[in-house]
Amino acid sequence: MDLYNDSHEKVCILSGTKETCITSTLKTGDKEITFEFRKTNRYAADIKEEGYIRTDTDEFVIKQVEPSGEWYKCTGTLNVEELEGKQYPQGFETVEKTVDECLTEAIDRTGWKVIRCDVSKKRTIRIEQNCSAWDVAQQAITTYRCEMVFDSLNKGISVYEKYGEDRGAYFIERLNLKRLQVQSNSYDFATRLIPIGKDGLMLNIDGKSYVENHQYSKKVKTMTWKDERYTDAESLKEDAEAKLDELSKPYRSYTAEIINLVEAVQDEKKKEQYKEVFSMALGDTVLLISKSTGIRESHRIVKFYEYPLTKEKNKVELANTRLSFEEVQRTEQELS
Fold first, then answer.
1. Mean pLDDT rounded to a whole number for the chain
2. Is residue 334 in a domain?
3. Widest pairwise Cα distance in the chain
4. pTM for the model
5. Rounded CA separation 274/233 (Å)
6. Are residues 41 and 73 in the same domain?
């Protein structure tokens, strides 16, 4: 890791650190770095808030330095300062545009650019209070149901319908799954969703104003979703079906402590074999197998805790949905 001061002048290559962890979050595209360094470190006085930490793949802004015994703990956030600094005091709006067009307008003259976009649908972004280009990007993730990767070194934004792959990887007890924590609930559960657009726009599907999904249960549980940015019934129906696909099953998430077998073995032949079934990254779909809990399900990696210096500590969070109903309804609250 390289340390830079707040003027972006390189100070040193950091050494003598421990517990370095980079946390990547699928939902926002954001990242965070934490590490510890001794109070007696030669450059301890230079590791301070608003300086920068640069790794091989990212740059972070130091936001907190706190004492912890003989050590200090440093926390940094992904460097998106130009996006945060591009302000829209009166709010921001793009009407029926692609996410590429929306972002290109929002990030104009920031030095950032959209370098990849797999999403072609047109939607409306409307933020009526003051916001930043970063806020617009976060709203776009929800509105366009897409996922973004922010390249903080090259100032590039990649937009995906669905980021990651299904490489055939799996976690299984007694092999590469050390510990599993499970969270499951159906607080946001619904099987029928009534969507309402601008000026009371509603669906008419063979006389029905709602969409249904009984993939998990035959019971009828109805909720209403209102978003006045929708003026087209087909777009309203498409997004309602996508949201209900997530709401119509219980939310499940898992924190899995894993053994990175690719890194653990020294034999190069075995390493190549393990790469085929145990390589994984943020957004990937993996099969989770736990005999002790009776789980055999496929889930996506929604958060990755990577320890570059001690890879055996790596952890991942898995989940079966991206949005809760609270997040679905947030658009209505923003427009009210």
1. 90
2. no
3. 73
4. 0.84
5. 48
6. yes
